[in-house]
Each structure stands twice: as structure tokens, then as C-alpha cells.
Amino acid sequence: MTTPRPRALRSEHCPVCDEYPGVGAFCSSCGVLGSHPTSGDYAAPYLRRLTGELLDLLIFLLLPIWLYWMWFTSRDGQSPAKSLLDLYVIAESGQPITPQRMWVRELVIKRLLLGLIGYAFSLLGPIVNAGWILLNPDRQCVHDRMVGTLVVVRREPPELAVKPSGIDQQDLQLPPPAPRGPRVKPITPVAPPSSQVAADAAPEAPARRPVPSSPELEALELERPQLSQTQYERRRRALIKELEEPD
């Protein structure tokens, strides 16, 4: 399963040459790796890539020498031919490739799957695998697309055309770590009794005012069956208001 391509390649300007970078992993103008422009990784030239593929095939025919050489060079992301041509294999994300992934790329995918099986039927497999370099803007073979790798040449890290800020990253200093103090056991809060919690949670009910009484209110209660609810409430409020008003 291939790793996703870095999305930083879709910017309007290359941070190194300030030109349109294109849609590939490398800038179409200067060839720098778009996801890591200051790493010094550039796209390998087409002729150099084709020469590496042919040279790898010739060295692979001497299988013991190829395996012995591959054992040491896979740790640096190089096959025997790439070690001679100063080429490096990296992941599409720009990160270094692991030795295990390098062995899968070179031996399992490239030599066994596309090499021996391709030779068993015809020469079409190895030819298409190597010829894919000329059709792909990132100089990738078929096995590069399957494993998710790129082949680069390494030069001096370039300077960015436009710096993101006026502060150099080397001038930035991180604050010192906080001193370690004694470990203090956190205090466990004691839960109050349930009765106290219920008493605190219950809102206080407003105190009810006593309803005044008078002969008029008692007479209104006797007449209530003959009155409507609206008439009863209106006359009751009026009588209560008269009783509450000071003389």
C-alpha cells in the first residue's frame, strides 16, 4: 500500500525557485523535493535512472555479489547500482526508507514479481518497468508506484526564495524544562451525605403569604357554584386587594 503524496506540492510557487512547481513530487522547474525543499533531495535525471536500472539488472545476474552488496547498501536506501551512481531511495512522503521496505522493493517486487515472472512470459515486464521512468514526471518505475518510493540525488540544501518569517529557526530557543517538584498526592474530595446533597440541590420555595379572610370572601365562596371561573377570580382578587390596602 503506497503512502499518500504530500499535499504541500500544490502550492502556487516553489519555495526555492519561486516558480510554479507542477503537480508531481518534485518541482517541475528546479527539481527540488516539494515536501522537504531544504533537505537537498532533487529528482534523479532520466538518463541516470535508466542507467541505474540496467546496471542493477547486470549486477543481479551475479546473485551472491548482489545479495552481499545489497545487505550493506539497503541501510542507506541504496541498491548496488544506486550506490555506484550516488542515488538514494526515499518514501513518497520525503522520509527515509527502512531496510525492510528496501528489501521488499528490490527483491520481492522488482526482481521476483516484475523480473523473473516477466522473463518467464516475455520481456514485456522488465521493459515496461524501466520504461515507465520516461512516462512518469517523478521518474518512478512501476515498482516505485507499487511500494510508494522516489529516487533522488542529494546536493547542498538550498536556501528558500521567500522565508516564511524574518526569524531564523536556528535563532529560536526553546524554554528550559520546568523543574520537577515533589510528588503530592491529590486530595480526594469527600462526598457529602445524600440528604445534605438533596437539601443543597433543592431550591428554596418562596414563603407564601397568608390569605386574608372576611365575611365578603366567605359569601363569595357560597356563591361560587353560580359564578363562572372568570367572574369568581375577578371578584376574589378585588376583595383581597381591598383587604390588603391600608385604611
Q: How would a crystallographer describe the biggest sheet?
A: 3 strands, antiparallel
Estimated structural class: mainly alpha
Question: CA-to-CA gap between the ends?
Answer: 95 Å
Q: How much helicity do the residues have?
A: 40-55%
Oligomer: single chain
DSSP strand content: 5-15%
Plain-language structure description:
By secondary structure, this protein is mainly alpha-helical. It has two domains: about 5-155, no CATH class; about 210-245. It has helices at about 45-60, 65-75, 80-85, 100-120, 125-135, 140-145, 195-200, 215-225, 230-245; strands at about 40-45, 90, 150-155. Helix 1 runs antiparallel to helix 5 (about 125-135) and helix 4 packs across helix 5 (about 125-135). The protein is rod-shaped and about 125 Å long. The protein starts with about 40 loop residues before the first strand and ends with a helix.
Task: Name the features.
mainly alpha, 2 domains, rod-shaped, single chain, three-stranded antiparallel β-sheet, 5% strand, 247 residues
Summarize the structure.
With 247 residues, this protein is mainly alpha-helical. The chain is built from nine helices and three strands; from the N terminus they run βαααβαααβααα.
Topology:
Layout (H helix, E strand, L loop, with lengths): L40 E3 L2 H16 L1 H11 L6 H6 L2 E4 L7 H23 L2 H12 L6 H6 L1 E6 L39 H8 L13 H9 L5 H16 L3
Antiparallel strand pairs: 1-3, 2-3
Helix pairs in contact: 1-5, 4-5
